[in-house]
């Protein structure tokens, strides 16, 4: 716990002085009783007092003073709070390898279901966009808080040839930049008009084929795009989706379409993002759930003085009430 105005804690010295004064007063009262030699007369003029609970009013009031002093110091604690401003581009591979059935019913169908779940799980303040890619990349939905538009676009995904992973990252970055400029130009100046933080979530099952399987470092390649994303402070979190045993039917023959973990991991490493693997729809949903938690919430220091104020007020009422009940007077 930290405090926004810690100098108020000096008030605890007053609390300590009150405790010392009360103890000194009790000791003096005991001494005066011992000096009173006529015990019969003492019983008549000073009837027997309640037991230990006679100290309850003073204890409650002193504790209330301590609690209210802490409340005035502005206690703060770390807490998860929903992000109100952030941009996420969800990027989904729709190359022909996504028709493989190693993930039931198919890789694409499982990816669509998990992506819609991801859209629903994100906190309302997140702007979510959608990019699909095969031989080229297309921005299907620009960043928006309208989840229905994103889910409708996910349902409309169609398979196509090739895998242009780098183009997908570049298209996502361009969409984020355009959205950030529109946000910054919508109002005057200040932190609320600064570009919101952004992230790309890339799900793919195979190695880049455009501009070529060995061309990730080319100007439009995946690794080049990942480096530029790092420079733009847009981490790319990658999900390698599928198994090593996936196959598809091409021209009457079975072609193996093993998942490519290595390139997905390198894209994440180069961009400063995270790398995940998923071999089933359930695993993919769990990955998306983890990402939605990370993206949708942030840890901030928040004011926690309200419980202290409430507790101090309650103790104050207890102290005053018990004083009137036990001694028929205020403590």
TrEMBL record:
Listed SMART domains? VWA
Tell me where in this chain the VWFA domain is found.
87-291
Q: Which Pfam families does the entry mention? A: BatA, VWA_2
Q: Where are the transmembrane segments?
A: 6-25, 56-74, 308-327
Give the record's keywords alphabetically. Cell membrane, Membrane, Transmembrane, Transmembrane helix
Please give the name of this protein.
Answer: Membrane protein
């Amino acid at each position: 716990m930290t405090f926004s105005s810690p100098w108020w804690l000096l008030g605890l010295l007053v609390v300590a002085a009150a405790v010392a004064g009360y103890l000194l007063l009790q000791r003096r009262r005991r001494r005066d009783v011992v000096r009173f030699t006529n015990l019969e007369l003492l019983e008549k003029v000073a009837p027997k007092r309640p037991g230990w609970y006679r100290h309850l009013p003073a204890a409650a009031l002193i504790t209330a003073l301590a609690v209210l002093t802490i409340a005035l110091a502005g206690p703060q604690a770390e807490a998860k709070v929903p992000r109100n401003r952030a941009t996420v581009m969800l990027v989904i591979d729709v190359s022909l390898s996504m028709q493989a059935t190693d993930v039931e019913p198919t890789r694409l169908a499982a990816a669509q279901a998990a992506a819609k779940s991801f859209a629903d799980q994100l906190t309302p303040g997140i702007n979510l966009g959608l990019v699909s890619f095969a031989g080229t990349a297309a921005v299907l939905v620009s960043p928006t808080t309208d989840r229905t538009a994103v889910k409708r676009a996910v349902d409309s995904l169609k398979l196509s040839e090739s895998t242009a992973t780098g183009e997908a990252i570049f298209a996502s970055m361009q969409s984020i930049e355009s959205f950030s400029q529109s946000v910054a130009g919508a109002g005057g100046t200040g932190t609320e008009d600064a570009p919101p933080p952004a992230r790309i979530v890339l799900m793919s099952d195979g190695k880049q084929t455009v501009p070529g399987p060995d061309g990730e470092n080319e100007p439009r390649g995946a690794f080049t795009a990942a480096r530029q994303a790092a420079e733009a402070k847009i981490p790319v979190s990658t999900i390698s989706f599928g198994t090593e045993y996936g196959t598809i039917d091409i021209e009457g023959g079975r072609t193996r379409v093993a998942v490519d973990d290595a390139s997905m991991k390198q894209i994440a490493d180069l961009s400063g993002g995270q790398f995940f693997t998923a071999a089933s729809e359930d695993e993919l949903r769990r990955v998306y759930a983890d990402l939605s938690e990370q993206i949708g919430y942030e840890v901030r220091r928040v004011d926690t003085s309200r419980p202290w104020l409430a507790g101090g007020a309650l103790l104050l009422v207890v102290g005053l009430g018990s004083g009137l009940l036990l001694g028929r007077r205020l403590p």
